[in-house]
Write a structure and sequence with these properties.
globular; five-stranded mixed β-sheet; 235 residues; alpha+beta; two-stranded antiparallel sheet
Length: 235
């Protein structure tokens, strides 16, 4: 089967590499700070691991990413090359276009809570975290039928980093956040502001002092595209 477009057009040649299925999402993860294979896969969980290997290999072959030895010496990580960084404004523009024009295309099956939690992990402001661990349990309603096993998820917040737990992490839960997944996705995307969402019903149970700080830690009080970039800038 022919894989290219058979044209010398630069749009065609670029699309043969960066517009294949899943590749823009793989690039999004790399541009958002994911460098290990597992972290990239967590951001694109519906791609098979075999196909992710293929997509990463293709990007490396075309000089868009490179593998570097990890700081801990255990294996290698994936990093954008200058050619890959040159795609950042393109992927950012695609994200802005989607934010502006694809809002009405969201369907119930798009509302994967694991993607939402992974996005919150990346957005979290670790510098604002307290000097102790905070465990937040999220209990979602309105989850797609094929993702109901992820209806309950946890975020572990620490200054050293934020982790997503798909199962009970075994720590004392400090806060419980209950919400329809669609409502929190709307806040995450900036379609609804946190103050308007919280005015209807503050969905956070637990220590009031921690509950008041949670939106700031996760930057839920910020609007993407206004207060936050749709895609992080290069580190």
């Amino acid at each position: 089967m022919r894989t290219g477009y058979g044209q010398f057009c630069p749009v065609a040649k670029a699309s043969e590499v960066v517009a294949t299925r899943w590749t823009p999402l793989v690039l999004r993860e790399l541009m958002s700070g994911s460098h290990s294979f597992n972290d990239i896969h967590r951001g694109v969980p519906l791609i098979s691991r075999a196909l992710l290997v293929t997509r990463l290999r293709d990007l490396e072959t075309h000089g868009i990413i490179e593998r570097r030895r990890r700081m801990d010496g255990l294996g290698r990580a994936y990093w954008l090359t200058p050619a890959g960084e040159a795609l950042r404004p393109i992927v950012g523009a695609l994200a802005q276009w989607g934010l502006t024009h694809a809002r009405d295309w969201l369907t119930p099956t798009d509302l994967d809570p694991t993607i939402l939690m992974w996005g919150l992990r990346k957005r979290a402001d670790v510098r604002a975290m307290p000097d102790h661990r905070v465990v937040v349990r999220f209990e979602f309603s309105g989850v797609p039928a094929n993702r109901t096993k992820f209806r309950i998820l946890c975020l572990i917040l620490e200054r050293s980093g934020v982790d997503v737990c798909l199962k009970d992490p075994g720590f004392v839960v400090d806060l419980i956040f209950r919400s329809d997944v669609r409502d929190l996705v709307a806040v995450y995307l900036g379609y609804v502001e946190w103050r308007d969402f919280a005015r209807k019903r503050l969905p956070i149970e637990g220590d009031p002092r921690l509950a008041m700080q949670l939106p700031r830690w996760l930057r839920l009080d910020k609007v993407v595209g206004r207060d936050l970039p749709v895609l992080p800038s290069a580190a």
